[in-house]
Amino acid sequence: MAREQEAAVERRAWKKPAGFLGPLLLLLSVPLQALAADPLPSWNDGPVKQSIIGFVTRATTEGGPGFIPPEERIATFDNDGTLWQEQPVVQGAFLLEQVKARVKEDASLAKQQPFKAVLEGDLALLSTMEEPELMALAGATHQGKTQEEFAREARAFFQSARHPKLGVPYTQLVYAPMLELLQYLRAHGFQTWISSGGGMDFMRVVSEDLYGVPPQQVIGSSLKEKFDDAGGHPVLRREARLDHVNDKAGKPVGIEQHIGRRPVFAAGNVRSGGDIQMLQYTQEQPRAGFTLLIHHDDAEREFAYEEKNDASLKAAREGGWTVVSMRQDWKRIFPGGR
After folding, report:
1. pLDDT at residue 31, rounded to an integer
2. Secretion signal: which residues (predicted)?
């Protein structure tokens, strides 16, 4: 009976038009008057929460020294480890399924790289890959597929895949405090953008439903594409060549290419130093921007991990960035509790 009830809940969660809206709907179910009294209810009261509210207040107080014109209120967010969990990297789990499907179609691929290494190392290997390696694997796996075909496969993954440890859909593992922050910023005239090292097309499948960020406001790593007339039915096909790696120094480049303005608010996380340059780029401007760094230090409710060289926390100390301790600063991590 319990399993039947669980299945019924899942069917309701995935029924259109709700799509992937589970976490966002949970957030929006909070009474508006409660959000007005406390716009960040999943954040513990303290210096971090007050610094965010203080920045937004100054930025939107016309005539004040910290006022930012609405057209300049650009906020960029990393995705993996900043808006949702990254142990394992979600796109890595998706690519593993795609590799297995390709090998099922052509068994000889199991002896070829990178397929052989992925199959032998499974998710453990994929979790250690840098963004260029993941995107190269994406190219090898999806070469020749149309954007529509890729989107269908990504949607099917999100509807069926479960986190290997937590046992729930990846779409339920977005961070409740960050959903609140996105909504809080938008309510005060900020444009919210995703600027992630992950695959741009992969994130665009769910960004609007999960975060309220439309696909045209997602910046990420990408493969080259080519136009195919397809007998009068034009499509874009993916190639096995990297176009842009939106990680580390590539993030400011991607932001400039897609937005054309420096962010005045940026959020990243401690993992591989991938967000340092985006945060530095946001901070160093005539009007100092707000920089937020998520530190994964909650092994009980999520995961605890550090960078080998401590580069992000060192940069945060030097730059005076606001560092979020998930253990101390967040009342809850996921929308469903926990």
Report:
1. 53
2. 1-36
